[in-house]
């Protein structure tokens, strides 16, 4: 069915009745099918993620997962398919502009001074502007760790970023989505 | 198998003991040996009999030849008369050979042989014939090996020896062969029955033990005869296997007991809160708030499960093949950076003292998580009214090892509780006012063990100092010895790192 094409995103369980999920993805990739694939797995072993991604999966979510997490990730994957292949050098959301080449962030006429990590955090949030980004996704993509931090580590980083980006402005850019994560969105419109 | 099925199995086994015996490997082996041995014995006996007969025949032939030559000599010297005299004399001796002198037409002239088969004297040469002696009153035919010699003027001379001796020897050998065969078969059968029964008895004992273990008696062990033979070795190994299984089962039991115990509380709370909300909440907002609370509670439960699974997998030690050469300094610095804002918010100073370029063969994710757990704990428990509320993270080489420590100035852990607190689900915070499940330290211990290191708790006077001792990567340790400043000899970050740290 997956080979028929026409799907935006594939959510594939590793334990399929007859076929291993990884083999399925591998065979799709061999046929130059680039439909984004998210692998679901009960095998939450650290090495399984690497195996899944090596087989051609685009994201990996161990069971049990929160539905909001799955939703956010599928959303990101489906947008990626629609987006142009080359990434733009600047991200622009309302009056917030991030220049990836010059490493500069401006809000309106003011320059926002960010630490390298804060810059990466904002970059990731703006890249997925209008989409929910979960805390785990942030830890994965900004810090490159795949575990679940027990405390609100990410929240503090985001609130620091928020203090620099949103403080003193009428409309906040970084929004908290209850029970899911964060979203950068131009609230003035 | 249910215990009730056991006696039935036991009875049926005893009923079929004999067929069972025939089916045993020991019996089959002995039977095969028996057949082979009997064949060999038969062959050897046959060979001996054949050789003895040949030897006897040769001897008889030799005697006959010598006599014929002697008699021919007599005839040459003294003519027929002398020959006949000699033959008459010799014929009368006890145990004499057979002699006969006959005329050219076959009439008997002298000798002790009668009743020759017709034509026996016609041709010269050697043959076996039936004959009878003249001296014997009764005519019992016997077999003899004879040689016929034609004298000058056509007279026939026959000399022979009775073959009775040879026949007797043959009979003796045949009888011996028969008896020994019978003995071999009987003894062999008895021996194989005995050996098979002995082995079968031990195997049956093992089977019985195995069945009782399957039926639930996990303490049962196979009996060891103490002879050190292969059955003993097998039993020994099986017992070791049973011990290991028992240990694992006990471990599983412990873990599942703990899980059941610790998950019951949050699950009950979750259920009660849902029920409470259903009963009392009147507005949509109140219901929403209750649902949010329920989701948080459920998320916590999932977190506990994940942590438990992770610990179990680490303890099974199945990921050692994905260890990489890592820059531990970079990992520690990264973790400190990740937690620094959180510490600041909690009113704690997070300080680091990290030696550069510490290399380790390890798993980045796991090391990061272990460290995160320790920092997390330090943040949770480190905020006392101490003069300098700070958390100090240190990483330094110590011989072939790397010492990585996280220290706080909180209440610390009393000496007596230090080993207990490393276990799963153990929390010293009796009131359980802080969030957490008592799994963070257990996970850190599992990670450190997986890397071949140790984790210990020290008094930070005041506070707690958790020290992880991890083996440094071999190449890095060597480099540290060779060069005074390891940081200059080894790139402080792997090639991929700068690109990751600095925004593109």
Describe this structure in words.
The complex is a heterodimer of chains A (about 190) and B (about 500). Chain A folds into 2 domains: about 1-80, Response regulator (Rossmann fold, 3-Layer(aba) Sandwich); about 90-185, Arc Repressor Mutant, subunit A (Orthogonal Bundle), CATH 1.10.10. Chain A is about 35% helix and about 20% strand. Chain A has helices spanning about 20-30, 45-55, 65-80, 115-125, 135-145, 155-165, and strands spanning about 10-15, 35-40, 60, 90-95, 95-100, 105, 110, 135, 175, 180-185. The longest helix of chain A is centred in the middle third of the chain and has 16 residues, at about 65-80. By secondary structure, chain B is an alpha+beta fold. Chain B has 12 helices and 13 strands. In chain B, a hairpin with a 5-residue loop joins strand 1 and strand 2. In chain B, helix 3 runs antiparallel to helix 4 and helix 8 packs antiparallel against helix 9.
- How many helix segments of chain B? 12
Number of strands of chain A: 10
Give the topology string of chain B: H per helix, E per strand. HHHEEEEEEHHHEHEEHEEHEEHHH
Share of residues in strands of chain A: 15-25%
Total count of helical runs of at least 4 residues of chain A: 6
How many domains make up the 3D coordinates of chain A? 2
CATH topology of the largest domain in chain A: Arc Repressor Mutant, subunit A
Order of helices and strands of chain A: EHEHEHEEEEHEHHEE
Domain module count of chain B: 3
> Would you identify the regions of chain B where 5 or more consecutive residues have pLDDT less than 50?
1-15, 476-504
* Largest β sheet strand count, sense and barrel closure of chain B: 6 strands, antiparallel
Q: Structural class of the secondary elements of chain A?
A: alpha+beta
CA radius of gyration of chain A is 18 Å
CATH class of the largest domain in chain A: Mainly Alpha
What is the average of the pLDDT values of chain B?
78
């Amino acid at each position: 069915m997956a080979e028929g094409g026409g799907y935006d995103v594939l959510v594939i369980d590793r334990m399929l009745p007859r076929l291993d999920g990884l083999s399925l993805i591998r065979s799709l990739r061999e046929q130059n099918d680039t439909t984004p694939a998210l692998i679901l797995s009960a095998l939450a072993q650290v090495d399984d993620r690497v195996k899944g991604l090596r087989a051609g999966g685009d994201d990996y979510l161990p069971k049990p997962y929160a539905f909001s997490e799955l939703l956010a990730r599928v959303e990101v994957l489906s947008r990626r398919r629609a987006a142009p292949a080359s990434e733009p050098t600047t991200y622009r959301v309302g009056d917030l502009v991030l220049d990836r080449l010059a490493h500069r962030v401006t809000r309106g006429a003011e320059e926002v001074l960010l630490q390298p990590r804060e810059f990466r955090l904002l970059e990731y949030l703006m890249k997925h502007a209008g989409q929910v980004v979960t805390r785990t996704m942030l830890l994965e993509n900004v810090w490159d760790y795949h575990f679940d931090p027990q405390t609100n580590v990410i929240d503090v980083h985001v609130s620091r970023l928020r203090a620099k980006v949103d403080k003193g402005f009428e409309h906040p850019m970084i929004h908290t989505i209850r029970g899911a994560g964060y979203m950068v969105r131009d609230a003035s419109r | 198998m249910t215990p009730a099925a056991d006696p039935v199995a036991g009875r049926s086994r005893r009923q079929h003991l004999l067929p069972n015996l025939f089916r045993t490997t020991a019996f089959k082996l002995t039977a095969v040996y028996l057949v082979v041995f009997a064949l060999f014995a038969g062959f050897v006996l046959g060979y001996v009999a054949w050789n003895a007969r040949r030897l006897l025949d040769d001897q008889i032939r030799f005697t006959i030849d010598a006599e014929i030559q002697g008699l021919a000599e007599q005839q040459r010297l003294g003519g027929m008369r002398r020959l006949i005299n000699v033959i008459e004399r010799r014929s009368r001796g006890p145990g004499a050979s057979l002699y006969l002198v006959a005329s050219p037409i076959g009439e008997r002239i002298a000798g002790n042989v009668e009743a020759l088969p017709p034509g026996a004297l016609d041709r010269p040469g050697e043959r076996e014939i039936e004959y009878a002696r003249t001296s014997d009153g009764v005519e019992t035919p016997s077999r003899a090996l004879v040689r016929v010699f034609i004298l000058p003027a056509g007279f026939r001379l026959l000399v022979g020896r009775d073959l009775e001796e040879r026949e007797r020897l043959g009979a003796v050998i045949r009888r011996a062969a028969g008896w020994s065969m019978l003995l071999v078969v009987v003894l062999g059968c008895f021996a194989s029955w005995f050996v098979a029964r002995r082995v079968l008895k031990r195997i049956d004992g093992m089977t019985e033990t195995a069945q009782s273990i399957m039926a639930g008696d996990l303490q049962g062990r196979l009996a060891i005869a103490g002879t050190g033979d292969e059955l003993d070795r097998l039993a020994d190994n099986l017992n070791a296997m049973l011990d290991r299984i028992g240990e694992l089962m006990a471990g599983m039991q412990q873990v599942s007991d703990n899980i059941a115990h610790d998950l019951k509380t949050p699950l009950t709370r979750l259920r009660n809160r849902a029920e409470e909300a259903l009963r009392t909440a009147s507005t949509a907002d109140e219901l929403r708030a209750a649902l949010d609370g329920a989701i948080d509670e459920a998320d916590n439960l999932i977190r506990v499960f994940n942590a438990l699974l992770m610990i179990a997998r680490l303890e099974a030690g199945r990921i050692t093949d994905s260890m990489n050469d890592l820059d531990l300094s970079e990992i520690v610095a990264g973790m400190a950076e990740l937690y620094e804002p959180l510490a600041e918010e909690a009113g704690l100073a997070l300080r680091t003292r990290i030696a550069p370029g510490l290399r380790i063969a390890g798993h980045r994710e796991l090391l990061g998580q272990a460290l995160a757990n320790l920092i997390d704990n330090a943040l949770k428990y480190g905020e006392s009214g101490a003069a300098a509320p700070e958390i100090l993270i240190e990483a330094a080489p110590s011989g072939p090892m790397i010492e990585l420590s996280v220290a706080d100035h909180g209440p610390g852990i009393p000496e007596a509780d230090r080993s207990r607190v490393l276990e799963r689900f153990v929390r010293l915070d009796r009131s359980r006012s802080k969030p957490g499940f008592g799994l963070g330290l257990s996970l850190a211990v599992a990670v450190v063990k997986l890397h071949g290191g140790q984790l210990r708790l020290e008094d930070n006077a005041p506070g707690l100092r958790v020290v992880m001792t991890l083996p440094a990567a071999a190449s890095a340790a060597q480099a540290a010895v060779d060069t005074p400043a390891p940081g200059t000899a080894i790139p402080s970050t792997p090639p991929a790192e700068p690109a990751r740290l600095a925004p593109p």
